[in-house]
Amino acid sequence: MDVIFDNFSLYRDGFLQTLRICALAVIGSLILGTVIAGFRVSPVPPLRWVGTSWVNVFRNCPLTVVLFFCAFGLPEIGVNGAYFWFGITGLVLYTSAFVCEAIRSGINSVPPGQAEAARAVGLTFGQSLSTVVLPQALRTVVPPLGSVLIAMIKNSAIVGAFGVGGDLFAVGDTLTSARGEAALPVLIGVVLGYLLITIPAGVLLGWLERKVAIAR
Amino acid sequence: MTASDTAPLMIRMEAVDKHFGQLHVLKDVNLQVPKGQVVVVLGPSGSGKSTLCRAINRLEPIDSGVIEIDGKPLPAEGKELARLRAEVGMVFQSFNLFAHKTIAENVLLAPVKVRKQPVAEARKTAMELLERVGIANQAQKYPAQLSGGQQQRAAIARALAMRPKVMLFDEPTSALDPEMVQEVLDVMTTLASEGMTMLVVTHEMGFARKAANRVIFMSDGEIVEDSAPDEFFTAPKSGRAKDFLGKILTH
């Protein structure tokens, strides 16, 4: 296990890079997923159509393919930027479809009378969604959303392989392939790094679930 | 009945049709409600009376026909419709108070969000309205902590907070325990006596006799009778109304 301690700074940088990718992708996919969920329940048919297509495309494509499109397809149509941002974009697009569906299931769990009453007092669709429906959807949304986000943290390993580099998984790759270290201890270090993110994330989600549950 | 014969129209429905799939729920409905009038809509279940009520603020869109509120046709979905709904109070059978907000917050939400009133001012008005419906002491509780009758009175206060031109009641007492019906009807009767234009879908015959200017009887999606309450209860013209009254007035 000396390999972990000998390369501690490499592991630490990889951990921080993974954390950075995840934090940005969580924020991006939560915002985008919520907007798309809003589209899917909107009274305007074209918006519903966009929302449904969005989910159908990104939920049904392998993440690797989405990332290929972002990293190699976007530059071909003239979009230039760092691989880091292409990777984040791919992960956000892919995850937003799952976030959307988790939020939509929460929206559907709110009795329709709540939205009717909100509309009846003159709230617009957006106001009714943001002040009446989504706050009540939150309590049922937290567990499925947690699963989606934890899956996303793990998917960040694939993002690292698309020229982004420097993340936890890439660290493992560097140590085993380039430096010829034994795979087992190296990978244990990588696993510990991921658990250091996902387990606290799970604890945080559990706490959040209890908190929104009593907010009635 | 009242001066309402010459008053301008608050609600006008002309040739309104609506289907739920194969079911023809509203058949060529024509209805005119002048300002200040209290109209009670009666009829067997499935007769379309709730749909009629909900069509007036477009909670149910109609297939064809015209609906006007205070001389303006109902706009399609969007900001215009939201503005119109703000002027039409609605009270539901199942109260539909916002479950995650206190009673006071329920009442002040729309004035703050829609009318952009300052919170302090909206809170003051909300407390006055809750006082008026007799539940000011429940203001800080959540809906689930109140009895059905109290929740429905809160829902009436919530609708009144927008100073609506007209109030729609969709079976406001049907989900209540019997001992709580009267407290809600008392609030509605007071409202009626203050000159509010009201359209009330109900099974409360006592309220219809006492507070209504006019009774509409619906059956199978049609308006079958449209008369003064006394006339309707003592001398119904149609067979369907006689049959309906025979069933509900014998017990």
TrEMBL record, chain A:
<feature type="transmembrane region" description="Helical">
    <location>
        <begin position="21"/>
        <end position="41"/>
    </location>
</feature>
<dbReference type="InterPro" id="IPR000515">
    <property type="entry name" value="MetI-like"/>
</dbReference>
<keyword id="KW-0029">Amino-acid transport</keyword>
<keyword id="KW-1133">Transmembrane helix</keyword>
<protein>
    <submittedName>
        <fullName>Amino acid ABC transporter membrane protein 1, PAAT family</fullName>
    </submittedName>
</protein>
<keyword id="KW-0472">Membrane</keyword>
<comment type="similarity">
    <text>Belongs to the binding-protein-dependent transport system permease family. HisMQ subfamily.</text>
</comment>
<keyword id="KW-0812">Transmembrane</keyword>
<dbReference type="GO" id="GO:0043190">
    <property type="term" value="C:ATP-binding cassette (ABC) transporter complex"/>
</dbReference>
<feature type="transmembrane region" description="Helical">
    <location>
        <begin position="182"/>
        <end position="208"/>
    </location>
</feature>
<dbReference type="Pfam" id="PF00528">
    <property type="entry name" value="BPD_transp_1"/>
</dbReference>
<dbReference type="GO" id="GO:0006865">
    <property type="term" value="P:amino acid transport"/>
</dbReference>
<dbReference type="InterPro" id="IPR043429">
    <property type="entry name" value="ArtM/GltK/GlnP/TcyL/YhdX-like"/>
</dbReference>
<dbReference type="InterPro" id="IPR035906">
    <property type="entry name" value="MetI-like_sf"/>
</dbReference>
<keyword id="KW-1003">Cell membrane</keyword>
<dbReference type="GO" id="GO:0022857">
    <property type="term" value="F:transmembrane transporter activity"/>
</dbReference>
<keyword id="KW-0813">Transport</keyword>
<dbReference type="InterPro" id="IPR010065">
    <property type="entry name" value="AA_ABC_transptr_permease_3TM"/>
</dbReference>
<feature type="domain" description="ABC transmembrane type-1">
    <location>
        <begin position="15"/>
        <end position="205"/>
    </location>
</feature>
<feature type="transmembrane region" description="Helical">
    <location>
        <begin position="53"/>
        <end position="74"/>
    </location>
</feature>
Automatic annotation (TrEMBL), chain B:
<keyword id="KW-0067">ATP-binding</keyword>
<dbReference type="GO" id="GO:0005886">
    <property type="term" value="C:plasma membrane"/>
</dbReference>
<dbReference type="InterPro" id="IPR027417">
    <property type="entry name" value="P-loop_NTPase"/>
</dbReference>
<dbReference type="GO" id="GO:0015426">
    <property type="term" value="F:ATPase-coupled polar amino acid-transporter activity"/>
</dbReference>
<dbReference type="Pfam" id="PF00005">
    <property type="entry name" value="ABC_tran"/>
</dbReference>
<protein>
    <recommendedName>
        <fullName>ABC-type polar-amino-acid transporter</fullName>
        <ecNumber>7.4.2.1</ecNumber>
    </recommendedName>
</protein>
<dbReference type="GO" id="GO:0016887">
    <property type="term" value="F:ATP hydrolysis activity"/>
</dbReference>
<keyword id="KW-0029">Amino-acid transport</keyword>
<dbReference type="InterPro" id="IPR003439">
    <property type="entry name" value="ABC_transporter-like_ATP-bd"/>
</dbReference>
<dbReference type="InterPro" id="IPR003593">
    <property type="entry name" value="AAA+_ATPase"/>
</dbReference>
<comment type="similarity">
    <text>Belongs to the ABC transporter superfamily.</text>
</comment>
<dbReference type="InterPro" id="IPR050086">
    <property type="entry name" value="MetN_ABC_transporter-like"/>
</dbReference>
<dbReference type="InterPro" id="IPR030679">
    <property type="entry name" value="ABC_ATPase_HisP-typ"/>
</dbReference>
<feature type="domain" description="ABC transporter">
    <location>
        <begin position="11"/>
        <end position="245"/>
    </location>
</feature>
<keyword id="KW-0813">Transport</keyword>
<keyword id="KW-0472">Membrane</keyword>
<keyword id="KW-0547">Nucleotide-binding</keyword>
<dbReference type="GO" id="GO:0005524">
    <property type="term" value="F:ATP binding"/>
</dbReference>
<keyword id="KW-1003">Cell membrane</keyword>
<dbReference type="InterPro" id="IPR017871">
    <property type="entry name" value="ABC_transporter-like_CS"/>
</dbReference>
